[in-house]
Every structure is written in C-alpha cells, then in structure tokens.
Amino acid sequence: MENNLMIKTEGLIKVFRTDEVETTALNNVDLEVKNGEFLAIMGPSGCGKSTLLNILGLLDNPTGGKYSFAGHEVSGYSERQRARLRKENIGFVFQNFNLIDELTVFENIELPLIYLGLPSSKRKEHVEQVMEKMQIAHRKKHFPLQLSGGQQQRVAVARAVVANPKLILADEPTGNLDSAHGEEVMNLIEKLNQAGTTVIIVTHSQRDAEYAGRIVQLFDGQIVTENIKKSIL
Amino acid sequence: MFKNYLISAFRNFVRNKFYTILNILGLSIGMATFIFILFYVNDESGYDKHHVNHPRIYRIDSEYSISNKVDRFAIAPIPMGPAMKLEFPEVEKFVRFANAGNVLIKHDNKEYYEERFYFTDSTIFDVFTHEFVLGSHENALVEPKTMILTEKIANKYFGNENPVGEILTTGQGTSYKIIGVVKDLPANSHLKFDALISGTTIAEEQGVEDFNSMEPMRFWNIGVITYVMLNENSSIESIHEKFEAFYDKYYKPIGEQINASYSLLTTPLAETHFRSDLAADEPIGNKAYIFIFSAVGVLVLLLAAINYMNMATARSANRSREVGIRKVSGAYRQQLIWQFIGESVMLSIIAALIALFLVYLLMPDFNNITEKTIAYGSNPAIFIIIAAVALLTGLLSGIYPAFYLSSVSPVTALRGSGDTSAKSKGRMRKILVIVQFFIAIFMIIATIAVSNQLNYLKNKNLGFSKKDVIVMQLQDSAFRSKGEIFKKELLNNPNIVGVTRSTQVPGNISWIQVMNVEKDSQMVQSSLILAQVDYDFLDVLDMEIAKGRNFDINMSTDDTGAVIINETGARSLGWYDDPVGKRIDYNIDLEGNVGRPMKVIGMVKDFHFRSLHNAVEPMILFIAQFNPYHVSVRIKEDKTREALDYIEQTWNDFGAKRPFDYYFLENNLNDMYEAEEKIEKIFSIVTFLTIFIALLGLLGLSSFIAEQKKKEIGIRKVVGASVADILLLLYTEFLVLIMIAFIIAVPVAWWRIDIWLKDSFVYYQNPGWYTFLLAGAMALVVGILTISYHILRAATSNPVDAIKYE
After folding, report:
1. Which of A14, A101, A102 should one mutate to test binding to chain B, selecting the residue with the greatest count of B CBs within 10 A?
2. Is the Cβ pair A111, B324 closer than 8 Å?
3. Coil, helix or strand for A176?
C-alpha cells in the first residue's frame, strides 16, 4: 500500500512571516495521493491552495511537518536536491501559462529536456511527439505572444508533460481561458491521467473539479472535507 | 543548452533595444578608451625593449660631488667606456654617443639643419639592434668620416636613390661618405638619432692618442652618452662592488686636489626613459603618469560595467518570471548563473569588437594627441589582453546580476513580482550610481586642476619678462665674432627695444662651476650656476635689482671684476642683508691660482632660469670676456613681423653662413610644460567620455524608474499631487545620489591632486574652492538634463493610463 503512495504529508505547516504579521497558510495538513490518482484541491481565495501546491511541487519548503515524495522524505531538502527531484518527476501548469516570451513554442517545450541533459536529436523527437499530441505542431515557430490563450496553455501543458513526469501539478489551469478552451485543456489533462500520470489540480471551478477522482476542500489552511468521486483503478 | 542560452540572450537583446544600445554604447566606449590607454601604457613601458640585448645593456651615468654640491648627469667622461672595458672583465662592449650639435648638412642644393646626428663607436651594432636596409654592419663606422643614415634622412636628401657611396657635406665643409642605411628607430627609443657618424672622425681630428688618453684629468670632464653591454652571466652589482679600485686609479688624483668626488651610476637600458634625476638627458617619461593612465583606463571600464549591472538588475523584475519558469523546468541555480554571465560576456564581446573598430578609426587622432606613432597591429599580444579584458568585463558586470537574478525563488518569481529584496537591490543600484558619479566628478576636478596648474605655470611671474623676446643662436664663429656690431646694427631699428648677448637664456641656464666664495671672512669652495652676459642683460629681460646696482659700462672695473648674485645665492652664502662687496673668485686652476677675482655689485631678485619643475638655485651673472652664443632681442609689441624682417635682413647682410633661425623666448618656456599639456588634453577627453558613460547609465536608469513608478505616480496624481510634486519626488531621488558622490569626491580629489602637484612641481597652485563647485555644478546640470526626458514624461502622463496599464 505504501509503495503505491506518491505523496504523503503529515501535519504540514506553512507560516509566512513579514516584519509585523505572521500568517499561517497551512495548518496541519495530512494528505495522501496515490500513484495515478487525479486530485482536485478546492477552496476560497487565500485558503492555502496554491501554497500547498507549491510545497507538493517542491517549489517551496514547509515550515513544519513531514512530506514524503515518492518515498523520499523531502521536507528538509536543499533547493538543489529539490530541483533534481522536480525536474525528474514533476510537470507544472500555471493559470497564467508562464511561457518565456523570448523563446518559440518549440523552444519553450524543449526547456525541461535541456535541463535533463537529453541530446538534441532526442529532444526534437520528444517535442515533436508532444506537439502532435497537443495539436500545436503547426505553431512551433511562433512566439507565445502570437498565440491565443488556449494555445498558450496547450504549450504550457506540452511543456509540463514533455519529460514524462510522474506527477502533473496544475494551478488554476483554466482560470485565464474561456469555457471552450478550458474544456479542451481539461480533456488533455484527463487523457494524461488516464495514461497513468498522477494529476493534482488547484481550481475554483466546480466543472474542472468534476474531472478529478477525489476533491479536497481547503479552508483557512486546513482540509475540511474529502470527497471521493470515482474509484481508482 | 548553450544554443538555448544564446537564443534567449539574443532575443532579449533585441526586445530591449533601448537598454541593449545603451549598454553596448557604454561598454564599447569604455573599452575603446581602455584599449587606447593600453596602447599608450604598453608603448611607454616598452621603451628600448626592442634591443635584443637590452637586459645586458646599462647606461653609465655620473654623480659629481663638488664642495658638497651634488650633480647627476646622464653622460660619462669620454674615456669611461674604454677604461671600464679595460678594468672590468664583466664589460663585453661599450658604445658612446656624442651629439654633433645643430649641424648644417648640404647635398646638391638641399640644405637642412640637423640636430640628431651622433658620433658613435663602431661597436654600436654589436650592442644595439638596428636593421640595415642598405649596407651592412660589418666594419661599419670603423673608417673616419663615414656615416650611416636612417631611412627618413636618406629619403630627405636622396629621395628614392641609393645613397650608399654618396657624400653629405656639413656647413663647415667636412664631407662624410654614406656607407649604409638603417631602419628608422621605433618611436619608443630613448636615444633617437637620425644619422650616425664614425667616432673615429673625432679621434682623427683630435689626434688618436689624445682622444684615447686615460689621464685622470679627462675623467673630470663631463663627456658623452655611454652604454656598456655586460657578458651573459655578469651582473652590474659586481662592477659597483669593485668600483673603488677603479676610482682610486682614475679619479682620486684630481678629486683630492679639488675637494670633489665621483660616484658611478648605472641605469638599465629599458629604465633610461624613466630615470628622472639626471641632467643632460633626453626628454624622459613619467612612471607616475603611466600609473595614473592605467588607473583611469580601469575606472572608465568599471563605469561601463556598472552601467550594465545597474540596468540588468533594474530590469530583473522582467526577467524573474523567466528565472521561475526555468527553475520549474528543472534548471539548477548554477545553470542560471552561467546563463546570465554568458549574456553579459556576449554583450561585452560585441562591445569589444565595436571598440576595436573605433580604435582602428581613431588611431591617427590618438597618435596626434599623444605624439606617438603606434601602429594598430603593432603588438599582437595586446589583442590577447583585449580578449581577456572583454571576457573579464563581461564576467565582472554579469556576476552580480547573475547571482541576484538567479537567487529569486521560483514561487515568488512566478507570482510575477520577483522583488523579494527590492529594498536591498535598490540600495545597491544607488551605491553604483554614486560610484559612477564619484568617478565622473573626480575626473572633472582633476582635469580642471591640471589645466589650472598649466595656466599657473605659463602665467606665473618669472622674475623677468618673457613676452616679445626673440632669441637667436650664433653658431658660426665668424658671425659670432661680429656679435657686438650685429647688436648695434639691430638697435638702429625703431621696432627693436633692446638687444643682449649671453651664454644662455632663461629657461635653460645650467652652466655650473666651482668657485671660491667669501663666507664668514674666509674663502671657501662652492659650486654656482652662472651665465656670462653683456651690460644690457638685466634691462632687456626686465629683471629687477634688489640691492646694489646693475652692470655699468662706464665703470671700468665692471668688465672683469663685477658679479651680480641672485637672492637665493646670497641667502645660501649668508649675505642676504649685505651682499655688496663680497668676493667671488672665478677660474681657479688646480694649483689654486685665481684667474678672475670679482666683487658683488648687486643682488638681482630671483628669476626662474629653469622650468618651474625646479626650484631657483644660487646663480651669478658676470660680463662675458668672449662673444657669447645667444642674442636676445626685445621687440616692440605688435611689431613682430617688421622686426623679424629687419633682423633677417641684417643677419644676411652680416654674411652668416647659416640660414636665419630664431625662436620666441615665451614659446620656448611654454614648451617646457609639454608633458603637462599632453596630460591636460588626454584628461579632458577621458573626462568627457567618463561623463558620457555615466550619463548613459543614468538615462537607462531614469527610464526604468519612470516606468517602475508609473503606478505610484498615477495614484499620487489621483489623490491630488501636482506635476511639480511628482517632479520633485523623482528628481530628488537622483540628485541626492549626485550630491553624495560630490561630497565624497571633493576630499579624495583634493588629496590626490595635492600629491600630484607636490611631487611634480616646486611651484604650484592648489585648485580653488570654485574648481570643486564648478565640477559639482557640471555633474548636477548634465545629470538633470539626462534624466529630465523620462521624468518629465512620467510626471506629465495621464494618471488613468498609468493605473489602467497596471
């Protein structure tokens, strides 16, 4: 059972301190995510969703508690150690796409492969494949600012999956998209999940959350309800 | 990976054209300045290193101490070279050079005065490296009356014809046979000759035995430029160690009689250009200036690097998102650091290429200003240094932004703000702007101070009037013997106010001799500087008598028995209060017989008879008993042309063998400050560039801050701020920095300039307070003008746009 766990947190705490104020963003969060699961995290603004996602994605360290990722206890990891785990295991999708404006579609998608040290020919092969899958191959020489929002998010998803990560983290992936484009992106993510990739999304949208097998409600930094929608195979 | 960085860097450059152009412009100007200074310093410090044997070659200099007055010369007695070769096995060869004077040279119908013809020993080509174009060094200059020309001189007299075997004749009728032509000397040769004449010519004229005599007396006559070349494994120290025995043999017999001693000084060939304590030397360089220029070169480069750092960190907000994405995509921090450093190195290489092109274009102007003849490709090693400097500059300017940018955590970076440490970053930027303006203000002050000192030197009251005085040299003895009639003839012209004849003229009075002088009622030996003059010398040059009287032609005793001493001289002998009547005996022979006893008749107010680098020393004037060499003519103001026409006419009427030649005393005196003039020119240019680069930085920064504060300005305006309020807010931010830079620059500049003045001049003027104020005001005004464009635009923009924009 333990071997089937991708993520396990116990009593996860995150506190932000500024000169005068101390804000507890996460308060004793216990969460388990199995391999291949599709999890949606929901909750009102400021409830700690993105903070949780950042910690789960190894972009940030918790203030307290335990976090085990794929069997590694990572809560005390250095940025360099986290960076290694991250690039080998995790793909990110953001609400505002976060593409590098100076790089073309192809080059943006290629980026994670460069940092994995793949040779150029291999990179080209992978990028071409994923562009086909995301239906953006015809835009490969365009720059992000020459694309529509939906297209940009497809590029972002392509970049997130090009290195075949075990986990995809998506923070409000449809937040900047109209409903048609949003659905298109969610379908893509669902397909990835069906192919075996673990997915965690943070969302406000009930419609997006419907794609997930399990929904976790966060309120004031704590998990308040869990709702299993589909059984996991 | 590299390709990806390259692409990203290049597209970033293109997207931010404004900043890229500012950066490249600043960096290329900074590097071009640096490269020029590198050329200059390389040339200055490379003097005489083209001689293959230079590490083994030493110039023999002399220190004579006579009655406790010490004088050092860059020359040695004529038999010194041969005697050293004879006594010291360390000495492999010696070469001597004696200037042939200002000699008239004729060929066909061409006649020129030549000042750089030297008699020399035939060993010259064994010791020094000179390349023959025609002829060969085998047996060269062994025969008397043979000559080797440089290409320049060969061309001057013979054009494209082969001069070997041809004859050149002097004004006196001596003929020299040309036996070879050597390449022109590199400009950075300390001793520059145009032609060489066999030294055996002098030996033949003088009698070989006489010429080669090693009689002790000959060692007390100052002589010729002398070089020795040591054996491969010998050291100059061992000669110094053994010199006492040499001294006892050659110097002591006479030295004991005249209460004098001699010390051997030696200067390594490559150092001769910088040795500054010797008389009778060629113009020398100044190591301090090499240091100052090197420092300035580095500063200018630093300024340009700071521009890059400032603009790169200022725009970091725009790049932090990229950093976040790259980190999320798996980049290690180290990789990002290299990426950003790579970018700055790339920019710096582009700038270096532009700089090299600029240098190529401006090389002629550079040579013009520095009076050098440096060829662009003259030293390939320089290009390796330039490549290294380009890399280093890129590294230096990129390292801070790289560490700064890559430090942002991906979470904050992606949140878009990226300004985790906005406060500290702002502080760093401010410090960098202060550093830039500190350098700029320092350079402005230094330039004004140099120009101020130069003005002071040229306008200082010298104790005589240098204006409207024409000086001629009567070189041929027949003409000279008619000097007194020539003078009378000149005085017939109404445009000529006065004429005087003297051995030397102010600016270059250096004749020094031991005399017996009265001190505490006893006669003691003392060496004094002297000039032998005629009765009108003090009047014509407007010198003032402080005590006693001037020479008087009606006093029969004045002709041989009267002497006038200067204030410093009287003071040093303890006579200041009562100089008149004191005794000075001139022309004392070895037995102590007095040739010419004289009494002081007057004390002249101190006048500067050498450049203001030197202090006034004790000196005396008395009436010449021969026909002196110099004729100085004071002419009426604004009648120069007419007076010169008359003088030339008279000159020719007297049957002078040489063409009419003269100089203005004032020009001659001003020429003594050529080195300072050069410094002033170079400083002015570098200062201008320094300010320009600093302003480029300010322009970029003001544009950025105006952009960054758009929202703040908008909000302030919405809640009621006027345009004036906003302007005040924005200007204050910059002007405070310039003020701080000014406050730091003033004492530092004061301190450094004071050192320079004290080290270089005996007479100087510290810059006044207005110099500093002027420098500060200049920095402030150009600073305000530079930032105004962006600040005015930001302040007057429509507030709604600013808010909506955000």
Report:
1. A102
2. no
3. coil
Measure in Å the smallest separation between the Cα of A121 and chain B Cα atoms.
13
Q: Which of B201-205, B311-315, B369-373 has the largest mean confidence?
A: B201-205
Closest CA relative to residue B286, chosen from B676, B797, B572, B698: B676
**pLDDT given for residue B119 in this prediction:** 94
Evaluate if residue B76 carries a pLDDT over 50.
yes
Per-residue tens of pLDDT for chain A, all 233 residues: 456 889 999 999 999 887 778 888 899 999 999 999 999 999 888 888 888 988 898 888 889 999 999 888 988 888 778 878 888 899 988 888 888 877 889 988 988 888 888 898 999 999 999 999 888 899 989 988 888 888 898 899 899 889 889 999 998 888 888 888 888 889 989 998 999 999 999 998 889 999 999 999 999 889 888 777 654 43
- Alpha helices (H) in B159-251, listed in sequence order: 200-206, 208-212, 236-241, 243-250
Token duo for residue A151: 């297209």
Q: Are B210 and B44 in contact (CB under 8 A)?
A: no
The string of DSSP codes covering A86-144 is HHHHEEEEETT----TTS-HHHHHHHHHHHHT--HHHHHHHHHHHHHHHT-GGGTTS-G
Question: Which pTM value belongs to this model?
Answer: 0.74
Q: For residue B186, give the DSSP letter.
A: P
Cβ pair B15:A101 closer than 8 A = yes
Q: Across the interface, do A83 and B325 touch by the CB < 8 Å criterion?
A: no
d(CA B91, CA B580): 53
pLDDT tens-place string over residues B389-443: 889 988 888 888 888 888 877 777 776 554 444 555 677 788 888 988 898 899 8
Write the DSSP symbol of residue A213.
S
CB B560 within 8 A of CB B567: no
Question: Rounded to whole angstroms, how far apart are CA atoms B255 and B257?
Answer: 5
Chain A residues closer than 8 Å to B7 by CB: 102-103, 107
Spell out the SS3 assignment of B94-149: EEEEEECCCEEEEECCEEEEECCEEEECCCHHHHCCCCEEECCCCCCCCCCCEEEE
The per-residue pLDDT for range B177-192, each reduced to its tens digit, is 999 999 998 888 888 8
Q: What is the mean pLDDT of chain A?
A: 87
**CA B62/CA B56 separation, integer angstroms:** 19
- Is residue B522 predicted with pLDDT exceeding 60? yes
Give the count of Cβ contacts less than 8 A between chain A and B: 71
- The Cα of A154 is separated from the nearest Cα of chain B by a number of Å equal to 16
Confidence of residue B800 (pLDDT cuts 50, 70, 90): low
